[in-house]
Each structure stands twice: as C-alpha cells, then as structure tokens.
From TrEMBL, chains A, B:
Domain Acyl-coenzyme A oxidase N-terminal: residue ranges: 37-150
Domain Acyl-CoA oxidase/dehydrogenase middle, first and last residues per copy: 152-268
Gene3D superfamilies: Acyl-CoA dehydrogenase/oxidase, N-terminal domain, Butyryl-CoA Dehydrogenase, subunit A, domain 2, Butyryl-CoA Dehydrogenase, subunit A, domain 3
Source organism phylogeny: Eukaryota, Fungi, Dikarya, Basidiomycota, Pucciniomycotina
Subcellular location: Peroxisome
Organism: Rhodotorula graminis (strain WP1)
Protein name, per record: Acyl-coenzyme A oxidase
UniProt-listed PANTHER family: ELECTRON TRANSPORT OXIDOREDUCTASE (PTHR10909), PEROXISOMAL ACYL-COENZYME A OXIDASE 1 (PTHR10909:SF250)
Length: 700, 700
C-alpha cells in the first residue's frame, strides 16, 4: 500500500497511467531545445537574483507555516489563520536569517500568500516613512517597523474608490483640545476594502477630509484629504477602542487570507501629533492651515509602483504559460486526423495536445507576452531612475512622458495578464477547473490588479490626455525641440509629416525586420490620436463621447512601447547579441509577439489604410507559421523562466510531468472523503458514519 | 440598534448612504422607459412560463433548505451538505406540490445550486430511460425515479475527456458466469470528474470498452464503449462494496456542492442484465456480440442539449447585465469633465457610472447579446422539432445543418456568456470582487459550460467540416436543389456567385436596414470558408494547420445565425410588430448587437474587401451612438428580463437599488468577525478571544 497512511482513501501501489509517462514526454521535449534554458534564465533575471532565490527557496519551501498543500481544503477562516501564521513566521525568519528587504521580497514572491500583514508592510509603513516628521517617525514608524503596532492604510470608502477627492470621512481640528475629531458621516463614508483592517490591524492611517477653522471668522473650511494615524484596538487585549466599529467585509473571489475590512468612526478624538504633517501643516494653537507644496515625488512613486505591476504581470504570464505548456505536452487526446496508420496496421497513437495549432494559438501568446513585458518593465525602471535623477536637478521634462506611459502600461499589462491566466486555464481542459491546477486560484487572486492602483479602464484617460497634448504641441510647432524629446513626440511628428504612410512589407521574409513593426505600431497609435483629437478639437465632442477612442489610443500607445522595447533589445542589446542561440529564439518570440498583436488589432491598421488586405493575410499566415516554429521550443522556453514547483503549486504544471499522480493525491486530501452520507429522501440526518479506512484492491 | 441581534458587529440605526439613494436613482431610471418592461417580459417568456415562475418562486425563496444568504461563508464540506439537503428537500417539495418536470426545472433554475443529485436527475436517468430494455426499466429505472437508488454517469476518465473512443476502462464478458468484469487497468483509466460519484451515488452507469469472445477462437475482441450499471455502495450503510475505490476529487473553481468523484474498479463482477442492452446485444450463453444499429437520435439529443445551453447562456447574459447595469446606475463616481458648475457655484455632483461611454461599451453588449441568443435558442428548438419530425418520416436531410450549427453555437454562446460575466464583474469596480456581488461565483460556476458537452474550442471542427462539405457541394453543382435547402447552402451559393461583393452602405441611416448585416455576416462566413477550403483542397494543407481558420469559420457562421435570427424577428415577427414600443426598442438592440459584433470582427470584413475603411469608421461611430441611445433604456431593459432578486443573489444587482446596506449586511455575516486575533510576532496562539458583542456608537 501507499505510505500515505493518513489519507482516507488509498490507491494501489504501482498504479500508474497507461502509455508514455509525463516525465518521459517532458524529457523528450527538453531534448529538442535549440538553446540553453539556463543561459536564458540568467539573461532574464541576472545572477544576483537567481542566487538570492536559490538561497531562499529551500528555506521557505520546507517551512511548515508556508505549506501550500492544504490551502484549497481550508475554510475561509482557516485560510485567514494560515495567512496570519505565515506572516508572523516571515518576520521571525527575517530576524533569524537577517534577511534584507530584497530577501523578504523574494521570499514573499515564492510563498505567494498575501495575508494579514500585507498592507502593514507596504502602504502603512510607506506612508509613515514618507509623510512623518521626525517626532512621528519615533512615535509611529519605529514601532511599526518592529511590529509593535500593526497597521493598515484606510483610503477607499464604500461609496468612493477611484475618486479620492470625493472621500467623505472627516477630520475636524479643534484648537481648544489640540485634537482632531475623525468622523464617518454616513454609510457611504465607511472605510471599506481596507487590507488588514478587518481583524488584524490595531492602527490605521486614515485618509480624511481635513476641516480647519478659517482665519477670519473661525468657520470650518474643507482642505482636502490628508492622512491621520488612528488607533483602533488595544494592542494587548485586541479589543476595539470606543467609537470604532470595525469588521471584515466578508469573502471575496480571491485573497482569502487578507482581512479586508470596514470601519465607522464616531467622533473619534486623536491628538494633533497623529496628523501626518511632513507636507502640510495645521498650527496647533490657532488651527491655521498651511497647504502642502506640490508633492513632486508622487508621480515618481506611482511610476515605480506601476513598473512593479508590469514586472509582476510578466511573472503571471510566465507562470500561466508554464502550467499550460507543460500540461499540454503531457496530455494526449485524439490521434492526428492526417496521421498514417502504424506499420503494423494499428491506429496512430494519440497526439500531445500541444501539437494542436488552435491550442498553440491560445497558450503561446502569453509566453511571448511575458518576454515583451520583461523588456518594458526593465525600461520603465530605467526611465523611472532617469526621471528621478533629472528631478533632483530640477528638470521636470521627463516626468510627463514616463507617467503617461506608465498609466497605459498598467492598464494593458493587467488586462493582458488576467486574460492570459484564464485562457491558459481553459486550454488545460477539464483538469484546469480543479483547484489543484493552480490557475483558477491564481486568476481569482490576480484580478484586483485590474481594478486597484487606478482602474485599468478608467486610467487610460491619463495616457489619452498626454497623447492629445503631445499632438497639439506637434501640430503647433513640429520643429520645436520639445517635440523631439521622447519616442512619443517623435512618432507623432513622423505621423504628422506623413499621415498616409503604408506598411512597406510584401513577402513573409520582410517581416523579419523588427523596425517594420515599430513603425506600424507607432503609425497606428498616432492615427488613433489624430482621429480622436479631430473629434475633440474640431467637432468639439465631449470628453465622455471619446472615452472609447481614448481607451483605444492608450492601448495602441502601450502596445507600441512593448513592441519598441522588445525590438530594441533584438536589434541592439549587446548581452543578447553575445548569446547567439538565445538571440535566435528571442527573435522568434519577438516576431510572434509582434505578428500576433498586430493580427489581433488588425482592423485599426486596415482602417487607417496603413495595412492592405493582402498584407493582413500574409501577417496571419506568418503568425500561424511562427506558432509551429515555436512548438518544439515551448517547454524549454517555459523552463527558462524557472518558476519553481513550490511557486506554481500546480498538479498540471509540475516540472517532472507527473500530472496524474498529483491529481490523485489532491483528491486523497479532500476532507469530505472521511464521511459517508445519507441520501434517503425522508431522513434529515445527512451523515451516516466515517469511511472505514483503506478500501478495496488488496482485499479482493 | 438594528434588529439583527445575532450579528457579531452591529451598525447604528438609520445610518444611510449620503446623497441620492439607490432606490431613488433606479426610480428615476425606470421613469425614462420608452416601452413597457412587463410587455417585453411577456413577449420573451410567454405567459405560461411566467405564471409557472410566479407560482413556484414564493415557495422556493421562502424554503430554509434553499436559503442562499449563508452560502458564501461556508466551507466546501458545508456547501456539499447544504446541497444535499437542498436536493432531498426538492424531491419532498415535488411530491408535496405534485410538481411536473417543467415545474421542477423552473424551481431548479431559481434555486440555482447544482448539487449531489444533479447527474442522477439528468444523465443517469436519461441513460437508463433511453438505453434500457423492459426488464432493466423495472430493475433500474423505476427505483432510480423513486430515489431508491442514486446514480451517476461515469464516462470521463483521468486521461480521457473529449475522446470517448479512447476510454480505457474495460468490461469483459465471461460466458461461464454470465457476468461482466469491470476493470480499471491503470491510473489514467480512473473514472474522474463524475458528478455525484464522490460521496453521493450508490450506483453508476459506467462507460467501458466492451470485450467479448470472438466467434472462431474465443479470443477477446474489443467492441467499443458501452454503458453498464455498476453498484458502488450498500444502499443502507453507504459502505463501499468490495473492489471499488471511490472518492471526491477535491475542490474546484466552482460547483462546490457537487461531489465530482473518481472510481477504480478492481475486477468488479456484474451480472449480464447490468449491460444496458437496448441497442447492442451480447448473447448470454455464447457471448456473441451484435453491434447496435446506428443510433439516429443521438444527433437529435445533442442538438436538444445544445439548444438548452444557448437558452441558458441567454439567461447568464441577462443576469450579468442586470447586476452591472443596476449597480452602475446606483454607483456615482467623479463629476463629468465637461459638466458646468451649478448655478450657486458649487462643483457639479458625481455622475452615475452608467453615464460613462466606456462603461456602456462593456456592459450593454451582454444585454443585447442576451436578446440575440434568445431568438437563436428559439430557432434551434424549432429546427430540432422539425428535424425530429422529419426523422420519423425517414428524412435525414435537415439533420446535418442543424447539428453543425448547434456545435458552433454551443461554442460561441458559452464563450460569449463567460466573457460577459467577467466583463460585467469588472465594470462593477472594487465591489464586483466581493462574493456578495454575485458575479464572481456565477463566473466560477458557469465556466464548465465552456469545456463540457464538447470543448468550445475543439467542437468548432464539426461546424468547419460541414461548411467545407457544403462549399464543395456548391462548387460541384451550384444549381442542385440540395444547395438551396437551407440558409447555409444559400449564403455559400450567393458568395460563390459573387465573391467580390461590397457592403452597400454609405450613410449611418443605411444601417437601419437589418438585411445589410445579414448579407455582411453571410459574406464573411463564406469568404473565410472559401479561403480555408483553398488551403485544404488546393494547397493540401493538413487539418491541424487549419484549426485556427476553422475556429474562425465556425465563429463567423454562428454569428451569421445570431444576426440572421434576430434580423428575421425585427423584420417579420408578427407578435413583435404588434407591439410598436417593444418593436422600437428591440430594433435598437438589434442594431447595437449587429454593429458591435461587426466592429469587433472588423478585420475580417476589411480583409475580404467587403468593407471599406470609411465604412468601418461609420460603423464605429454608429456603435457609439447606439450605446448612448440605449443608455436611458438600460434599466427598463434589464427589468424586462425579470431576474428575481432571489435568483440574482447579488448585493449589487438588487431591484430596489439598496446596494450599500446589502454590502454592509454581507460583512456583518462573516464568521471571522466573532473572533479577536493575536498578532504578537513571538506568540504561536492565533486567537485571543471573542468579540464583545455590539460596539461603539451608542456607547460613546
């Protein structure tokens, strides 16, 4: 019998799938590699990251508090508990091993269980650090860094998410007592969705509309939203302090370990020092308000967060492609329609699902999109650093372009990644629906990325505004140096100079020039901008009338950036050029990314007259040919991304290909299997007893 | 205080959202109706259905066993128990009220909790009824109908889903004992995914490869997959019988109440009578096998099931649109950019999210798609009945067209509906992510429809094969009467006669002729077929090479059917014509459906040369204009679908618009709120106590 004696149902020893094993099938795939996956991996991540990961992985994957094998059987409450335990243990391990912030980041990525302390570690600490004066650093930041207080960041309200200026919670200064009164005026003002607020946090940074007395007649005047530190619970007894109503908001599609919470403040009084006062000021005596100087770094912070979102989306795409590609290499279904009979007259054996072109068309795009996001994420970090350096020199010229592009890229990359998870899950057929596959829960947990940090549909307006502004400026004076300062202004200028340009390719071979795609995507983004700008400035259409056009412009601009950064690497990245085999396969990935994306969006290339119908047909054929070309390299390519089994947590995506035994073990773990149920219609009792241990087989 | 005294956290009496209430906002929307929602509802469903629903709804929504309010807080095990209780109670109520099969269907639709008996009621009973001889009807069907035995339908295996011919489970006939030996030869042969098998069923219909002795030398010969009745458990003690290993396969993305299970049979012996023998025969004495006559009704059954899938997809679209449209009418965020200040100088108030064009572009298409599927589902039922009637006259001519179209429509409608749920969920912003919204769980539960009953990507090959065949036949003799027999042959003939046709519209007003769209979609489907057929028959490309083209053909053909059936109703449905206000709004819905779909697929219309770039621009403008035109009718239109609150089970989609109080109640129900947690890093204990009842507010 199997050695897993605690499992309620056991299966026979040596019971294996019929036919070629998954392990063998993956070995055969790996033998086809035209490049070294290890070399590509090093090129992607760099040695420093890989060394860090290989140091930390064995610690976290062997830590009982970080075990992932039981999570899918747990109730939501037990998932919260598991997450809280994990968060405590992470702090302990950080102290034991003396981990740096980078180490912890890698550990959290691998453990991949956002939980109770998630917002304490990010927004709570970040806000305290950036918005506190020296006294507040001592009073709040240090205890928070030592986990003596646990906090959350309370901005969103039941009635207000995106529109921060519309927040309703009030903080009214009372000079007599030198205190602020925090109040929740109505149900729509309840703080809502706040990570860690539900059961965990004892403190909150609360964003509230500041009211201070006006100089002349002492009338209260609204000053806009500012951050306040509000104690919530007694740090020891964990009882709520008076005036606070706090609870978890209940289960969500994902994120079960995080206690998103709500709070009502009923005239809660906090001392003057709890107003985070680095940028604005309320005079303690008079209550006189001094407005903050413009927070120039805010745009920078957003860009940094968004660059991280793009880098994270890259890993989501790589994970999804890894699971789907490995599983589809192990799964076999139907013989090829055109396959000949074998020599001895038997039917041909079943084909790997990965061989089907329609499957390739669904799961190879996420793989090449991961590489595209990789180069753009890298470029965003470089641009962020350059713009920060320029800022310190008092130069604001880089900021607008970097910020506008980061909005569109946040939008595009999160929509792209979430769609890819689901496409890969569906490509895994029936087994993709089991939580053991790892993609269904990844999807559920990833979805908030589409909505938070700027809703990915709404946020496109920031990019649109910038494209309008740039084109207006080019139209006003196309020779101004400002209009040569960055890629956006340059491609818009090129379009304005030659709006009737045509795609110059005629043969499939022409498509091997990356510049073809850079020019095409640039022309399309500029064409959409020109068309929409005409509606705005000449037809005087309302902004709302143009929201669809603006979303399309933002998408087109962002796709241009992805194509451009990927193309630049293919053409000019010296490290890549020095690795010919890696360069060769990256070139195929680039071509597939560019052709696939262009085909998907073909109507806009056709409508502008840039692309002719015959060229579109050529493009589609080339896309199909590239899928077939990539086929033998698919498993080596996902191996190159090097997602550890511990991270994937997927029966389908295992590196060793032992898919079916892993599915069986997942079934064996289901707690329902311990109980026998009563199906008699007229009996209320639902259970009739416990299963009697091991069943069948050896007993026959 | 609130009267809900059992809730761990209470909120103050009279605590309401600020600003105009959701109820008032929906009242204002309803006052804008240009037609009678009740009249449209009657037109869609017919009186008989509505009377049935209104008779059954009060019974099921007041039945404690069918309560939906606690489900999202339950563990998976408790969800299974809730489902089992619901299934037993449904049988009791059916007996108490003397419900017909139609009544039960309506009750199950409203309760919407597929659970333990789901496959007993469908495939188990259906197979017994259609495949049993008279003796077997007495032995198996009658006890099953009385719920004396509970069954499941065991076809899928761990290694085989779509490819039924590849099943590995064996049933070997042994003339000596007049019995079959059922055996699971390896892990890949384990029955898997079988609904109700995990914990509930005591019997299974097992599809197994039949082996019988060959006449000459008695050598065992494989005869293909056939159904066998296999007892699994003792009906009273519920203990597994010897030789059976059975368990639940563990949690899935959705369907928590259903115990999908697995089984291993280790040489399980069943008597000859357990072979369901209506169509094939194994002689008890000799074991001589007689092959079944071709089961001519099988295609019919599939068509019937798929027509039901299309009708169900229609309701999924209507539900999703109902939730998103009502919520977006209640939710307000940001003031319109172009809105003027109010007369007294205040900022304009926030706009309903439903006013934003980009939101309309995401949530109105599902609404009009629901109407499109409605007409096509109705047409499929008519076609099914006609083809069954013809079959009984020995006329097979209708079968192929009806079956091929039903494959493509199954594929298109399930992909359309699943994507629409998620798009509507995202359009609900942050609150769409809460399970209280109802769409996240609807999505998770709907997803299997995309995969089962023929994987919606793979199944398109059936439609493709038929389109190839039809075009070959037209090319061979375009005057043959067979090539005028149905819409498909007719539009292919039209295309062959005039492959270079052009879209005839020039002005927006031209688009008000439905025939414009019928012709356009027909031309595109034929164009794609012609292009792919050239590759197959002239270039001799492999079938696999063409799978993407074939999927596109199938989609195009199915979209033609949707457009055509909707257009026919607008042009020729007399009942519709007799209700001018309803006809008017349906015409707008049709135009939006046709324009939106054509814009989405524009690249293929452009590539064929049928559509010119200028026409595409016109089409896009018209689509945007139609969204704005539909805006004031959106709430009345979803009201017309009449999805009861009990069915929606959504805090966001409530008919009364009281969204925010419902979100708060959902939070109050979360069991985690009863416990206080210990966050001290160095203490292992996770809990510190119970919350002390009512908090804050009145105590200050």
């Amino acid at each position: 019998m199997s050695s897993s004696d605690h499992l309620p149902v056991q299966i026979p020893d040596g019971f294996a799938p019929l036919g070629t094993s998954g392990t063998r099938l993956l070995e055969i795939e790996r033998a086809k590699a035209s490049f070294s996956p290890a070399e590509l991996r090093e090129y992607i991540y760099g040695n420093e990251y890989l060394e860090r990961q290989s140091r930390i992985l064995p610690i976290v994957e062997n830590e009982p508090a970080f075990d992932k094998s039981q999570i899918h059987y747990m109730s939501r409450g037990d998932k919260y508990r598991h997450g809280l335990r994990k968060d405590k243990r992470m702090v302990q391990l950080t102290r034991e091993h003396g981990w740096s912030a980078e180490d912890v980041k890698v550990a959290e990525e691998l453990v991949d269980m956002p939980a109770a302390f998630g917002l304490h570690n990010s927004m709570f600490l970040k806000t305290l650090r950036s918005q506190s004066n020296d006294e507040q650093q001592e009073l709040f930041t240090k205890p928070a860094e030592n986990f003596e207080i646990i906090g959350c960041y309370a901005q969103t309200e039941l009635g207000h998410g995106s529109n921060v200026q519309g927040l309703e919670t009030t903080a009214t200064y009372r000079p007599e007592t030198k205190s602020f009164i925090i109040n929740t005026p109505g149900m729509s003002s309840m703080k809502w969705w706040i990570g860690g607020l539900g059961r965990t946090a004892d403190h909150a940074v609360v964003m509230a509309q500041l009211y201070t007395p006006d100089g002349k007649d002492g009338k209260l005047v609204k000053r806009g939203p500012f951050p306040f530190v509000v104690p919530l619970r007694d740090r020891k007894t964990r009882e709520l302090l008076p005036g606070r109503t706090v609870m978890d908001i209940g289960p969500k599609a994902g994120y079960p370990m995080t206690d998103n919470g709500t709070a009502i403040f009923n005239n809660v009084e906090i001392p003057h020092i709890n107003f985070l006062a680095k940028f604005a000021n309320v005079d303690p005596e008079s209550g006189r308000f001094t407005a903050p100087k413009h927070d120039k770094v805010a745009y920078g912070t957003m860009t940094f967060i968004r660059a991280n979102i793009v880098q994270q989306a890259r890993m989501i795409l790589a994970r999804s492609a890894t699971v789907a590609i490995r599983y589809c290499a192990v799964r076999r279904q139907f013989a090829d329609r055109d396959a000949p009979q074998t020599d001895d007259g038997r039917k041909p054996s079943e084909s790997q699902v990965l061989n089907y072109l329609l499957v390739q068309a669904r799961i190879f795009p996420p793989l090449v999109q991961a590489f595209a996001l990789h180069y753009t994420g890298r470029a965003m970090m470089t641009a962020y650093n350059a713009s920060q350096a320029a800022l310190e020199e008092g130069d604001f010229s880089l900021l607008a372009d970097v910020h506008a592009s980061s909005s569109g890229l946040k939008s595009l990359s999160t929509i792209m990644a979430s769609n890819a998870i689901e496409e890969c899950r569906r490509a895994c057929g029936g087994h993709g629906y089991s939580l053991s596959g790892g993609l269904a829960s990844l999807y559920a947990d990833y979805l908030p990325q589409v909505t938070w940090e700027g809703d990915s549909y709404m946020i496109s307006q920031q990019t649109g505004r910038y494209l309008f502004k740039t084109m207006r400026s080019v139209l006003a004076d196309r020779n101004s140096p400002a209009n040569k300062a960055n890629d956006t202004a340059q491609y818009i200028t090129r379009y304005v100079d030659n709006p009737n340009a045509k795609a110059p390719f005629k043969y499939a071979g022409d498509l091997s020039d990356p510049q073809i795609f850079v020019d095409a995507f640039a022309h399309r983004a500029a064409y959409l901008t020109a068309t929409a700008l005409r509606k705005r400035d000449i037809e005087k259409r309302t902004w709302n009338d143009l929201l669809i056009d603006i979303f399309r412009m933002s998408t087109a601009h962002s796709q241009f950036i992805l194509v451009n950064n990927f193309a630049q690497a293919i053409m000019h990245d010296e490290e890549l050029a020095s690795k010919p085999a890696v360069h060769r396969i990256m070139t195929t990935c680039f071509e597939l990314f560019a052709c696939y994306t262009m085909d998907t969006e073909a109507s806009e290339f056709l409508s502008s007259g840039y692309l002719q119908p015959k060229q579109h047909e050529l493009l589609r054929s080339r896309t199909h040919a590239l899928l077939a070309e990539l086929r033998p390299q698919a498993v080596p390519l996902v191996d190159a991304w090097g997602c550890p089994d511990y991270l994937l947590n997927s029966a389908l995506g295992r590196a060793d290909g032992n898919v079916y035994p892993a599915l069986v073990r997942f079934a064996q773990g289901e707690p329902l299997n311990e109980t026998r149920f009563n199906v008699a219609i007229d009996e209320d009792e639902l259970e009739v007893g416990k299963e009697q241990g091991v069943r069948a087989w050896t007993k026959l």
